Amino acid sequence: MSSTAATMKTSMALLLRTLSKARISHSPSLSSRTLISWARCNSLLPSPQSRDIATPRRSYAAIASANSPFRSNILRIIRNEIDYQSEYAPPHQPATEFKSFSVEDRPGEQCIVMKGKFGEDETIKMEATMFDGFMTVPRTGLDASGRDVRLHVSLLVDISKADGSEDLEFLCSVWPNRIEIQNLYTLKRDKISGQPYMGPKFGSLKYDFQTAIKEFLRVRGIDSELCFFLHEYMMNKDRIELIQWLRKLNTFIAK
After folding, report:
1. Could you give the CA distance from residue 88 to residue 102 in angstroms, rounded to a whole number?
2. I need a labelling partner for 149 at 20 to 30 A (CA). Which of 17, 156, 178, 254 fits?
């Protein structure tokens, strides 16, 4: 064995022992990359410039050629998924209105905006998220074994009056068959103090009070029919956004 080879063997053994100690100690201040850089600075590893010029190097074209089958496979998987999502449960054109409310989709975003009026001087604005949670419930019917999943939509309802008085803001949970009010705020939009009083938790209020507030929302169209509409809308939007995301991914990788 030549002196150069012996030196390299000793150096590599030292480096491996050093890396092994670092893995055992799990020191956050000394990573393997740091150790390799330190080793190069101390001539324990040959730098890229000191490699034997006779060592064959793979050209960019060779690397690209090797990556082509891998990239082709990814693209094939992505396109198959696009076809599957488009054909198995093809999304339809999103609705633009619900009852007296206009519906504004925001492509590429996780929410929609609904706007409407009540009476002569009330403006209602609602912002609903895509599915952002779930709960499980016991299964009912003939096959009562197991549990069903109920998806959750967050809904923010703003009700304002033309006279500039304080707005009412409701933070709600929308389940497939009901709306749960979590909080009720009164806000002065142009005069919000640093730490305004946000009111008690809605569930801590008296039952009669809760019932009256729910009726207040119901007559304004914020009811079980809205629950059904939002869940159907978000199921469709979820498919639309997924297909668009897959197409963007396909475009990026194909370049």
Report:
1. 29
2. 156
> Residue 52, class by beta-carbon neighbours within 10 Å (0-12 exposed, 13-18 middle, 19+ buried)?
exposed
> Residue 254 carries which side chain, given as an amino acid letter?
A
Question: Between β-strands 178-187 and 167-175, what pairing exists: parallel, antiparallel or unpaired?
Answer: antiparallel
Q: Are 231 and 153 in contact (CB under 8 A)?
A: yes
Q: Which amino acid is at 78?
A: I
* pTM for the model: 0.70
DSSP 26: T
pLDDT in tens, 195-242: 777 888 999 999 999 999 999 999 999 999 999 999 999 999 999 999
Interatomic CA distance for residues 159 and 116, integer angstroms = 10
Which DSSP state fits 204? G
- DSSP-derived 3-state class of residue 47: coil
